[in-house]
Specification:
By secondary structure, this protein is mainly α. The protein contains 4 helices and 2 strands; from the N terminus they run ααββαα. The protein has a two-stranded antiparallel ribbon. It starts with a helix and ends with a helix. The protein binds zinc ion (ZN). Zinc ion binds next to strand 1 and helix 3.
């Protein structure tokens, strides 16, 4: 009985994972399609003169417009306040960090702790 349950549960998990992957592929196709529209390109272009929201450095070729609203249903909902322009590395960084932050906000404090200690060891007099 345990073996059967194990098999059924595993099968169920696999099906769900596949659906998730299919949804993700469908989503990224839709996103790609949307980013090819005039509406998106014009919207993105309106941020062109701004700086990287996090580093305040100038935007480099290939900069990305990060949507703060991660709900795929809102992807094409172009509310200016919900977007920030980021260079590629900053964009990767903020998504990476958010994965931890969403369930553990104190990750920010530990990063600051590490940065302060690095600063004191390396920049202190
Ligand atoms: Zn993003």
């Amino acid at each position: 009985m345990f073996v059967i349950n194990y098999f059924v549960i595993n099968y169920y998990i696999c099906i769900n994972e596949h659906n998730k992957e299919d949804n993700m592929t469908a989503n990224s196709d839709l996103k790609k399609k949307f980013r090819a529209t005039k509406k998106w390109k014009t919207f993105r272009e309106s941020f062109n003169k701004e700086k990287d929201f996090i580093t305040l450095k100038k935007l480099y070729k290939g900069w990305q417009l990060h949507h703060l609203d991660l709900d795929p249903d809102n992807y094409d909902n172009l509310i200016v306040e919900n977007f920030i322009p980021l260079n590629v590395q900053t964009h990767e960084f903020i998504h990476w960090l958010y994965n931890y932050y969403r369930t553990d906000k104190a990750v920010i404090n530990r990063i600051q702790n590490a940065l302060e200690r690095m600063y004191n060891l390396n920049e202190g007099e």
